[in-house]
Design goal:
The protein is of the alpha+beta class. About 35% of the residues lie in helices and about 25% in strands.
């Protein structure tokens, strides 16, 4: 039985690698086309989708073009200003809110004869969001249909795929993430919660409060395919004499060379400390003792990149 499961995991890994290689060729072709600053929406959509036959390939071409040529507008996003989110306006301005991203992706898919819907909902961007429900919808993404079965719907988040805003929401930081295209639902649901649960694909938190209680998963955590964590909740209560056991379940066969932990953040962040860990069958495991009695954010890094944050309450 163990040999059979291991064989399946290898096949899935090879399939994912093949998919990514195919996406690489699509991405390269779209990259060569450039920004097309003087073209209108219809022409851009035709140019980037015409070379491809399948709907998945066309959707990928649209995703790659948007994530490289549209940026998140910090001021509009911070103020939740949705006045300039029409696809034609976005093509002219080349900046918009996450809702604008989803509406642009939806329109370009529609022009390419791909069924796609915009989904409103919630996400968390930093450790301050743990356990603190947002007052209003703060994010939008898409679901794409490629067939008639329930399994033929796929997640896409072009806004997060393009990069992110800094903590103060004043600066856009470009950082293309391929993995927000057709993301594994269990991974996607770790940092997205739809306002309408009908558009939650696969397994995920059963309520908005349960979602808000989760640790914060960052872009690199999504790329690793983190789909389950132990501890399950983002707030950890412990004692300075105790040890906390961590298990991060992620996509197998993605090698990690180094893990570090940072206590605190910004100017109060301590020097990163290396973690002794194991990574077997897609489970990163390590233990840590929080010997400083206090309350503070804790961020875990894999190969120098932040993947997940908790909020620790350590009592003496």
């Amino acid at each position: 039985m163990k040999i059979f499961i291991a064989s399946i995991l290898v096949l899935l890994s090879l399939f994912a690698t093949g998919q990514q290689n195919r996406f690489n060729s699509i991405d390269e072709k779209i990259s060569q086309m450039g920004a097309m600053p003087n073209e209108n929406l219809a022409t851009i959509t035709e140019n980037i989708t015409h070379p491809f036959f399948g709907k998945e390939e066309k959707a990928r071409a649209i995703y790659y073009w948007i994530t490289h040529h549209i940026t998140i507008d910090p001021k509009a996003t911070k103020r939740n200003d949705q006045r300039k989110i029409k696809p034609e306006e976005i093509i002219q301005l080349r900046a918009t809110t996450p809702l604008g991203f989803s509406l642009l992706f939806q329109e370009m898919c529609s022009q390419a004869n791909i069924r796609c819907l915009s989904v409103d909902g919630y996400t968390r961007n930093n450790v301050d969001d743990i356990g603190n429900p947002p007052e209003e919808i703060n994010h939008s993404w898409n679901v794409v249909q490629l067939g008639q079965s329930p399994d033929a719907w796929f997640y896409v988040d072009a806004a997060k795929g393009s990069g992110s805003l800094d903590k103060r929401m004043t600066t856009f930081i470009p950082n293309f993430n391929s993995n927000y295209f057709f993301t594994n639902p269990e991974v996607f649901n770790m940092d997205h919660y739809p306002d309408n649960e009908a558009w939650r694909l696969g397994i995920g938190p059963k309520s908005l409060s349960a979602f808000n209680a989760l640790p914060v998963i960052y872009s690199y955590g999504n790329a690793l395919g983190i789909n389950k964590t132990e501890p399950k909740t983002g707030k950890i209560k412990t004692k300075t004499t105790s040890t906390v056991k961590f298990n991060l379940f992620h996509t197998p066969n993605l090698a990690i060379n180094e893990m570090k932990i940072v206590i605190g953040e910004d100017k109060r962040a301590e020097i990163p400390r290396e973690i002794k860990f194991t990574d077997e069958s897609g489970i990163i495991s390590f233990s840590y003792s929080f010997k400083r009695g206090d309350e503070y954010p804790v961020t875990i890094f894999a190969d120098g990149k932040p993947i997940i944050s908790y909020y620790v309450i350590s009592e003496e």
